[in-house]
Amino acid sequence: MIASLGFTAPIVLTALALLPVIWWLLRVTPPRPQRIAFPPTRLLMELAKREETPSRSPWWLMLLRLLLAALIIIALAGPIWRPAADGSMQSGPLWLVVDNGWSAADDWPARSRVATTLLDEAQSAGRPVVLVGTADGSGQPVEPAAAGDVRDRLAALEPRSWPVDRAALVPLVERMGAASTPGSVAWLAGDVGGEGADAFETALASAAGDAPIRVYRSGAPGLVALAGVDNASDGMDVRLLRLDGAAPETVEGTVVARDRRGFSLAEAPFAFADGATETTVRFDLPVQLRNDIARVDVPGSETAGSVQLIDDRWQRRAVGLVSGGSADLAQPLLSPLHYLERAVGPFAEVREPRSSDLASAVDQLVDGGVSVIMLADVGTLVGSTEETLSGFVQDGGVLIRFAGPRTVEGVDALVPVPMREGARVLGGSLSWEDPQPLAPFDETGPFAGLETPDDVSVTRQLLAEPSAVLPDRTWASLADGTPLVTARGFGNGWLVFFHVTADTTWSTLPLSGTFVDMLRKLIGLAGTPPGGEGQVSSAPLPPLRVLDGAGQLVQPGPSVRPLPAGAVAEVALGPEHPPGLYGTEDGFRAINLLGPDDGLAPLDLGPLADRAVITDYASEGPVDLRGWVLGAASVLLLLDALAVLVLSGGLGLGRREATAAVMLAALALVVTPTPGFAQDDGFDMEAALATRFGYVLTGDDAVDETSRAGLSGLSMFLARRTALEPAEPMGVDLEEDDLAFFPLLYWPVTEDAARPTDEAMAKVDAYMKNGGTILFDTKDQISAGTRVDRLGASPATLRLRAILDGLNIPPLEPVPPDHVLTKAFYLLQEFPGRWAGGPLWVEALSADVTASDRPARSADGVSPIMITANDFAGAWAIGTDGQFMFPTVPADPFQREMAIRTGINIVMYTLTGNYKADQVHIPALLERLGQ
After folding, report:
1. 3-state DSSP assignment of residue 104
2. 397: phi then psi, degrees, rounded to nearest 5
3. Domain check: are 773 and 913 in the same one?
4. Same structural domain, 649 and 719
5. What is the pTM of this model?
6. Of 840, 818, 826, nearest to 904 (Cα)?
7. Which one of 215, 763, 800, 877 counts the least CB within 10 Å of its CB?
8. What is the pLDDT of residues 445-489, one digit of tens each?
9. Which domain holds residue 711?
10. Same structural domain, 211 and 100
11. pLDDT at 737 > cutoff 80
């Protein structure tokens, strides 16, 4: 127990030696004389002389004051429970190494708290600090700096969305050792290991020399990661991982699939069995809904590892198969459609037309909405069929054709390059040439990254006419340079031709796994328009949106670089290439933290196991006791004042009664818990005594002050222009405060706003259902247009959707022209704030309400929710000097006036309902309009 207590200023404890002096002073100082009123005749009874002794302070009062003095001395000494071993007792620089990779987001508050405490101790002791974030690369400064200067860097340190490459940090550790000799080392480590951990730990131990090393670990059992998505034929499977040995017997949760707008499409529960580190969940959705999934995540686990982004490569495209052969030849192992169906079935939805007529079959597939059509051994197309397929490709479809006996005599114009008549025979008694293998795939082509199979040989081939464009349109070739696959862009789609059959009569390619991979890449071209000269774009993919440490898509920073063409699968995640979306609005590629072949390995502290002290964040973190000690001293001070009052006769009690009263008061203070409802009673009383508006506290001082000033300014204008005189607005803590006292809550939403707990959101839901109205303001109308991504909304709007996820939100619509809000007090058609142009969203009225009675609703209902992006509070806010705090954009006084009128209409609508929709007001309104 005593070993777990430390002090930031232990020299102050020497003042405890003064306690005997304080005791002597208290002993020789008599208490205040007590005055007693008595009649004059009482003097006669006191004439007898007797021995008197001076009055002394009671022993318990002296003990109380000595204890009070001791507590003040101890508080000034800075008591800390479980101080870090590398605290102020050490000398020399403090090396503060913080793991801030993707797994750090799971326990970042605890990690940040410990780092701040260590920095405070170093600053109190005057020790310099070297701060290193393990996910920030090897270019960080390693020279010791003052703790005050390092504090800003620590505040800016945050979890990253990529893994920690500890092997790359070895040179950084060596530079640290060359720059300074540490007095102590604190490594705030994560639980996820990986390659290079042993080398990093060995280098850290060597560079630290004899300095003590303390390693902090979280032991977080709830770390869950998503590693791969498989959109199978009967459902989408998602693979989940957890650390081996770091979790309790069972871990349960939910995986949510979301569309590009952030709305939930499906939820699937998961549970890790005892000892299991991997599990799988399935989304049983129709193919059309599965193709709309753009993101899969685990609510409550805000890390980049708990997110899987999905692009069109994971979609199950509808592929139509048509064969030019007759039905009696369409048998397994003899039909080209059999090989095509087996090849594309694992990743696409295969459709075969019911009609055997080629023209009817093509019409059925195009009308059915397929993305890719494969024609096996189909020769010249008739005019109407060629026209249908031409329109299909120009609209973005992919037409893949295969050679065969019917293409030998000639083909139509829907091919990438002109074809020769007759097939080239390789091998056999009548040929001088041997069967040809495949040539390596071009690294800049669509088949880049595929392995060239050694067991594939081609015995027959349809040749293309030589031309200047043939090399550019050849995507795969044989070893002798003749084309195997040619392609070109056609409109918004693609024409692809295999110069061999889809079965094994001309080559063994359909028996190879490379055939499956080639078709997968070709089907992935659906929806991707051709680049320059009708070819697949080879330009680098610029970053579109990247994941931050909390798993949210944000704008890429200046250090993020484009992905080289063809390097999507081999990209090394890091500061230059974090997980996210790369490409353009028309087409992008999703880069995820973990893939289907990845796993989670726990961190092994082998090289440091015997050298370092292992500490847990939650149970071993330093705790500052100064507040507790000063609180106890305050209680003793109150008891001392009470004792003096009693002993002086201020309460009319005798000495014995006074002692008993003081003892009972002290006992009551010790055993009685602090009433948790005292603050709530004060809040409830203040909120209930007057009509006032509330604003949700966000934790951001600037945002909260703007909300307060805005509602205060609106209250002032209401008092000047209406009969309502609201009191000053109050900040509302959704977790603690009661919402029922406020007719209107203003809730500003920022892109980094934290979602309240489920209990708080249940209070919000009950508030709206019972007649309360919440005005949500994303305040980003002026910037949202430049920050809307392919996922459909600005960051603040996406955050609002995440906050409202799970609530029973009614359908919304922009305020209609005849809504009560347009005439609740002023006649309005627009609702500007500090910004203009954004609509004000309210609950949509039911479809059965006609235009004439549209505002009339049962029970004078008021929309429980309003949403804007125009920054209303910024337009209403008035500073202490009586001037508006923020200019409107544009700086138009009329826009400010309209913003004030908007606020007054909102308040009147909230307080009075839809009484303005009463027909008795129509003549007066028409008269004012001059109609």
Report:
1. helix
2. -80, 170
3. yes
4. no
5. 0.58
6. 826
7. 763
8. 888 888 899 889 999 999 999 998 999 899 999 999 999 999 999
9. 692-929
10. yes
11. yes
